[in-house]
Design a protein that fits this description.
Blueprint (H helix, E strand, L loop, with lengths): L5 H9 L15 E2 L17 H5 L26 H8 L6 H8 L7 E2 L11 H10 L12 H11 L6 E4 L2 H12 L3 E6 L4 H8 L3 E6 L10 H9 L14 E5 L11 H13 L3 E5 L12 H4 L5 E6 L1 H4 L7 E4 L2 H8 L9 H12 L1 H23 L5 E2 L6 E5 L6 H10 L2 E2 L1 E2 L10 E5 L3 H17 L2
Parallel strand pairs: 1-5, 2-12, 4-5, 4-6, 6-7, 7-8
Antiparallel strand pairs: 3-9, 8-9, 10-11, 11-14, 13-14
Helix pairs in contact: 1-3, 5-14, 6-14, 7-8, 7-13, 9-10, 15-17
Length: 454
């Protein structure tokens, strides 16, 4: 990177790359682990010289890719790759990437976070300009105006809705609120479910989709695991008390039908547990939502977010829908005034902007198949089916997702390296669907990288 500071490089050299999938990671029982996945510990990664080259200024500008990054030898020490892996593991960290590159964040094209490319709704922009005077007062601790609007949107009661400082705040409150000692996570998926269970000293079991099934959500395997929770255990025979499902899933984009979710719910209810469904991306396939059912079933909780669909991740606002009885337990675990006034006002404006929702759905319906066909046109690249606004992509050998992530970042394109997800391997990337011009440029850069391999 140009002008990469000496201090940063020294920090890179002093940090040791953590081994993913090592025994130190609490991943519980791994069911359906992809045959492509290999344990990282004790394994020498290919093309190690790539890591050294990625820590030096790029010699390529314009459309040409520095192919030395791909045609590298086999000797290098730790460098920029380590910093990228450790600090942008969730995607969307455009500010950190800009610091590494000594560039302005606005110069980067972020495919790593699946945010609506249409940007912040105009109604929300206008309202934020006029609502700034309200910050002289404390925010409404319950956010009643927004809660009422959410309830009306979903046909539920305001008592069935609780706001959070993003869905992550709500996720982190769940284990304590519902005394979850053993959670089953349907993956590969967003890492915070596992993290919060681990912090709560809960047991974690993974049921993983398989590449041979195009990462179809493994409903049958989950049902078998819930109904026979003690199979394969030696000592701690705790029943599964909560099942976490992301629908549509991130990063695979695969979704479960409404009937499939109901089957999971009935199995969980027989065990007196909870089914927690994260519907962050469900606006792209609304017919699969079970949010109304959550208002009348104590065993079902549904998470929603304004981040992805409405393009306001910086404001941090989400909500959860459940029965009044269930949410009473959750409310007691949340801090007061956690959702600020501007976030509440912007979210309210987003809900009322029906034209924005229509434009977004039409836009994604048009661009998603075009983007997929373009990616599939690159020799050796496999694109998995998706119901959301992103694609999971498998690179051809011997490329690795970490290598390609660094190359593309040097070119100004941020993508999500998915190799650290349990159940995915070292050649997996996720690309958000952006504008047609941005998509075309990314495809061109990726094609150059693939063609540059030995």
């Amino acid at each position: 990177m140009e002008n990469l500071s000496t201090g940063l490089l020294q920090a890179c050299q002093s940090q040791q790359r953590p081994s993913r999938g090592s025994d130190g990671r609490c991943i519980g029982d791994l069911v359906g682990w992809s045959g492509h996945l290999r344990r990282r510990s004790g394994r020498t990664p290919p093309n190690r010289r790539f890591r050294e080259l990625a820590s030096t200024p790029s010699r390529a500008h314009g459309d040409r890719i520095d192919v030395d990054f791909i045609r590298a030898g086999h000797s290098a020490g730790p460098g920029l790759c380590d910093v990228v892996e450790q600090s942008v593991s969730h995607g969307g960290n455009v500010y950190h990437a800009a610091r590494l590159l000594s560039r302005d964040p606005s110069d980067l094209c972020d495919f790593s976070a699946s945010i609506n490319p249409l940007g912040v709704p105009l109604a929300a922009r206008r309202l934020l300009q006029t609502a700034i005077g309200k910050v002289q007062h404390y925010p409404d601790p319950q956010g009643l105006a927004l809660v009422q609007a959410i309830a009306e949107r979903h046909g539920v009661s305001p008592e069935n809705v609780v706001l959070g400082n993003g869905t992550v705040e709500l996720i982190y409150a769940l284990p304590a609120a519902f005394n979850i000692r053993h959670g089953l996570i349907v993956g590969p998926v967003f890492s915070e479910y596992e993290r919060v269970l681990t912090l709560a000293n809960a047991r974690v079991t993974h049921v993983l989709a398989r590449s041979k099934d195009d990462y179809r959500q493994p409903v049958r395997e989950v049902l078998e695991k819930v109904e026979r929770p003690s199979s394969g255990w030696s000592k701690r025979r705790l029943p599964i008390e909560a099942v976490f499902v992301c629908n549509p899933n991130s990063p695979t984009g695969r979704s479960v039908s409404r009937n499939g979710v109901y089957r999971l719910l009935e199995a969980v209810k027989r065990r007196n547990g909870y089914l927690i469904v994260d519907e962050t991306f469900v606006e792209f396939c609304e017919e699969k939502s079970v949010i109304r059912r959550a208002a009348c079933d104590d065993s079902l909780l549904v998470l929603r977010s304004f981040t992805k669909f409405y393009g306001i991740p910086g404001l941090r606002i989400g909500y959860i829908v459940g029965t009044e009885k269930s949410l009473w337990r959750l409310r007691n675990r949340l801090p007061p005034w956690s959702v600020n006034t501007l976030a509440q006002e912007a979210a309210l404006a987003c809900l009322r902007d029906y034209r924005y929702k229509e434009r977004t759905l039409l836009f994604i319906q048009k661009e998603r198949p075009v983007f997929r066909r373009a990616l599939e046109g690159i020799p050796g690249v496999r694109v998995y089916p998706s119901s959301a606004n992103f694609f999971l992509v498998e690179l051809p050998e011997p490329l690795t997702s970490h290598q390609v992530q660094i190359v593309l970042m040097k070119r100004g394109y941020l993508v999500r390296d998915c190799s650290n997800y349990p159940g995915l391997h070292e050649r997996m990337l996720r690309f958000a669907v952006r504008t047609s011009r941005e998509n075309a440029r990314l495809v061109k850069q990726l094609q150059h990288v693939v063609q540059a391999q030995p």
